[in-house]
Amino acid sequence: MYSNLEQIQSGSFSTVYKAWCSTLKKYVALKVIPKQKYTETGIMNEFKIMKLLGKKHPNICSMIDYYEDDNNYILVLEYCECGDLYDFLSIVKRQGSVGHPALIQLDFIKIIHQIISALTYAHNLGIAHRDVKPENILLTKEGNIKLADWGHATLDRVSKDFNIGTDNYRAPETFGCLNGYDTIKCDAWGVGVTLFYLMFGQCPFRNAEIPANGMDLYGFGSSSSSSSLSSSSSSSSNSHKKVAKCVNFQQYLVDPYGFIYRYFLEPIVCVHQGRPYNSNEGKPSFYVWQDMVNIYQIFYVCRIIVDNLATIDADDRFMSSSLILFDKVWNYNNNFNQGGVDHEMKDFNGVTENATLSNGKSNMTNNNNNLERKQIIGKSS
Ligand SMILES: Nc1ncnc2c1ncn2[C@@H]1O[C@H](COP(=O)(O)OP(=O)(O)O)[C@@H](O)[C@H]1O
Ligand SMILES: [Mg+2]
């Protein structure tokens, strides 16, 4: 029933193949999980979650069938022709260079909408993904995304499983806290860091871990009396010092806007202005999204992520309100590019001035001629 198997990816737990399904007369993906690598409870969880998710949502990679033989569990999934976003961006990175970024002919705002729509659908069913990252977001040949890999998903709203997910994308409280963490709020953090990766091709920190002796604000320390699920009662409190394991994350804790500006935006601005950038910070990205070539717009998107998704206090993470704000930025940007809304960008300019962008409106759209206009959707190999 399945023929022409071609290996797509092989990871620590599974090998994924593209295969022709003669019954359906289309390609499918076979996720083959060796029994010795995975517990029955684990695969049953993934199977149960995928069944619950069903086939209704266009941005969730659905399960077509399920098999088991003596050695393997096999999930039959709808096949996404363009692979995952991590691999996609790796190809794009190779096509661009510093000062000559490749142009991604996809709308970033559409991708944001689709990721949040898929997660909101899952959350409404009581399912949290817990491993949101570019590797688990698949791309179709139409340029739409499908959220995949529900292997870490849970129906528990509160979890004390502190060994789940991928370090770069995990919310601080998922590394350990007294009362358990809110699984849905930790997805919002994952979306925030994923959006940073998609925008700049790098994660801001290796991990967001705050060791038990690093603070007591979040209920990490034994002295804490926090009753919140996972986070602080007041993220602005100065009475406790939060000390992170990772240097970058420590800087983010102390000054999130400043860190994000220095790490992601300053290198872009430096390249744009022909100045050298500090190579110890992030590197300028090697690509731009076609609907996101204005530095102010990029700056504003970063602010929304910092304020609404990658906030230390889990209670302050809201995917739906961040989406409304993202849409506003895109509306402003359309008008801005048509020369319409200077006054509405004032607040924005103020922030960028504080953040030492001093040459006024340095609009990256001027740089468009330098872009390598390449059709890069789809893998050529
Ligand atoms: N349905 C699919 N269509 C195309 N590629 C897929 C599909 N499912 C998985 N892949 C590829 O296989 C990789 C591993 O699959 P995933 O479900 O994430 O397994 P793991 O649990 O091993 O991470 C993905 O990152 C993606 O590159
Ligand atoms: Mg995966």
Automatic annotation (TrEMBL):
Keyword NAD: no
Domain Protein kinase: 2-331
GO biological process terms, semicolon-separated: autophagosome assembly; autophagy of mitochondrion; piecemeal microautophagy of the nucleus; regulation of autophagy; response to starvation; reticulophagy
The keyword Signal is annotated on this UniProt entry: no
Residue ranges of coiled coil: none
Enzyme Commission designation: 2.7.11.1
Alphabetical UniProt keywords: ATP-binding, Kinase, Nucleotide-binding, Transferase
GO molecular function: ATP binding; protein serine/threonine kinase activity
SMART domains assigned: S_TKc
InterPro entries for the chain: Atg1-like, Kinase-like_dom_sf, Prot_kinase_dom, Ser/Thr_kinase_AS
An annotated GO cellular component: cytosol
Name of protein: non-specific serine/threonine protein kinase
